[in-house]
Amino acid sequence: MFENIVGHEEAKNELRNHIYRKELSHAYIFYGNEGIGKFSLAKEFSKSLLCDEFEEYCGNCQSCHLFDGKTHPDFRIIDSEKSIKVKDILEMIDFLIKRPIVSKKKVVIINDSEKLTNEAQNKLLKTFEEPPSYAVIILIVNNPNKIIDTIKSRGYEIEFNVLDDDKVVEFLKEYSDDKELNYSQIAKFSQGSITKAISTLESDHFNQLSALPNEIFSSIINNDEYKLLKIASQVSEIQELLEFMLTWIRDISILKKSRNFGNIFNANYINELQRQSNYFDIEILIKFSNIIENTKKVISNHVNPAVVLNYCLLKIQEEYYEYSNRC
Ligand SMILES: [Zn+2]
To answer: Do 23 and 124 lie in a common domain?
Structure first.
């Protein structure tokens, strides 16, 4: 059961046991980083709960067909771009009060539960206190601290840990058969998130972006302001570029401290990294990282991210210029 979900063996085992032993909770709280498979597992779990076979979904019964066709009358997903309000919870209660039509259970997934307003959480609590016998509600949340304690104490918490790079590589190999791609680089970049890995994989710009830190730091060493501004003006995925720059700085730091090539992210640029490592000491690398981290913080709220990137690159260059004159 749950073979389609990558990793999360502990979570899967717990849920399997709940099903096999028929010891279901009325409320589950799936928590852990964004994009690591909480929602996918919640859907598989729901499908199993609704299936006629109950223990493991068969894929052939009426319930399974309806579920796959997204028309199961006993299943709901609550999702919202902005906030999940009292009226959404009232609709859910209305849905849950009526007995199931096709299955023995009724299941609701509340995605991004951090979007529940306080009033909505309090309304939800009422359902958690006296749930209909056939109801199962699954809350999905990145940070469980966003859920009020009274709800948490009534829900069964299932933690989702970040996936190992190996697991992500395994998934990517199944997902795409493009032999040209550097799966382990994408996996490292995705930091355990399958969602991020897929979006990275599907971004045409991955290879272009991964080439830019080399150009940027070469321009900084050469004091080539014109080139820096030119690069900044051509990039649209600024957040991603900043992440790539951080991996570049981390790689140089690793090379300076040890010769452990195994942890190098930009392994296909090893010669360039080694060359550049002669120009920077650890202290200046930390300064660069701080500038980039600060840029990441301000950029999401800024009306013009390109201006922020410009400023960031020039600031790094300025730091380097002062540093190289001191040495
Ligand atoms: Zn079935």
So the answer is: yes
d(CA 287, CA 236): 25
Whether residues 194 and 258 share a domain: the answer is no
Residue 1, in any domain of the structure: no
| Residue 307 CB coordination number (10 Å) | 12
Q: Are residues 152 and 21 in the same domain?
A: yes
pTM of the entire predicted model: 0.70
Q: If you measure from the C-alpha of residue 18 to the centroid of ligand 1, how many angstroms do you get, rounded to a whole number?
A: 18
Task: Measure 66 CA to ligand 1 centroid, in angstroms.
Answer: 9
**Averaged pLDDT, groups of 10, the chain, 327 residues long:** 84 93 93 90 95 84 95 95 93 96 96 94 91 96 91 93 87 78 80 83 77 95 93 86 93 86 84 94 95 89 85 95 87
Residue 2 belongs to some domain of the structure = no
The confidence score (pLDDT) of residue 17 equals 93
Question: How far is the CA of 133 from the CAs of 98, 224, 293, in angstroms?
Answer: 11, 69, 49
Instruction: Give CA–CA dist 151/161, Å, rounded.
Output: 22
CA 64 – ligand 1 centroid, Å: 4
Residue 56, domain extent: 9-159
